[in-house]
Amino acid sequence: MTIIDSLLNDFFWRALIGGLGVALIAGPLGCFVVWRRMAYFGDTLAHSALLGIALSFLISVPLNVGVIITCVVIALVLVAFSRTRALATDTLLGILAHSALAIGLVTLSFMPDVRVDLTGLLFGDLLAMSRDDLLWIYGGSVVVLVLLVTLWQGLLMSTIHEELARVEGFPVERLRLVLMLMFSLVIAVAMKIVGVLLITALLIIPAASARRLARTPEHMAGLAMVFGFVAVGGGLALSWHLDTPAGPSVVVTAFLAFLVTYSTTARTAT
Fold it and tell me: What CATH number corresponds to the domain at position 61?
């Protein structure tokens, strides 16, 4: 048995490897959540993940596929409704977030033959990470990282000044849709780590901590990865020694790192 096989056969190391894979993409993508003030949007997509899980059972597809499909549909609905300006954006997000979560729960209740660990789905089940979960996480990570590297300038420019980005020839609407697709993919692969109710925290908190120290956008994205790694490693250690839930422990560790960073450093201009 190789060292890799030995690591993958141990539930703790699988959890750590999977958590680090999610932090790898949640960090840089979380920077756009912070820059664009999209926290509530992230919550809406995360809440819709439960509806995606119900859809997965209905049409017999892998959970991750159902979650991605649902998140993409919700994102497109948000774009369409936001253009009509019939409702304020925060009102629309609130309606879709809680409605999608409730519809998902109600739909699952009509499936008596389907056994679902709701606690694990809502708050994560990091220590139950499987090899298939690792494949999803690192496959999704590669896709998101390639898209981020390829589209970084356009995404950054449209974030800083949308009108200027249009003048410079960047496809702003297409970039917004790609960003939403990346959010959907991250939510699908991170669901196992911290659950649908805490995914947004893993996107926002490391990025917010990094913002305090970073001097450039690229520096902030790199630091957000590091803070994500610290959150995963520290959360797993906390869970191991104190027998606390792994997913919430990761978020608690991220929050503690945020408090330490903000209490000991001066604000930068990033």
Answer: 1.10.3470.10
Note whether residue 25 is domain-resident: yes
- d(Cα 37, Cα 32) in Å, to the nearest integer? 8
Q: Is the dihedral of CA 121, 123, 127, 131 positive or negative?
A: positive
Is residue 73 assigned to a domain? yes
Half-sphere exposure of 196 (CA within 13 A, CB side): 30
pLDDT tens for the chain, residues 1 to 270:
465 555 555 778 888 888 899 999 999 999 998 998 887 887 888 888 888 888 888 888 888 788 888 888 887 887 777 676 666 777 888 888 888 888 888 888 887 777 767 777 777 777 778 888 888 889 989 999 999 999 999 999 998 888 888 888 888 888 888 888 888 888 888 877 777 778 888 899 999 999 989 889 999 999 999 999 999 999 999 988 888 888 889 999 999 999 999 888 765 545
Q: Cβ neighbours of residue 256 under 8 Å, at least 6 residues apart?
A: 234
Indicate whether 210 belongs to any domain.
Answer: no
Residue 137 contacts residue 18 (beta carbons within 8 Å): yes
In a domain, residue 260? The reply is no
Q: How many domains does the chain have?
A: 1
What's the pTM? 0.85
Structural domain span for residue 56:
3-193
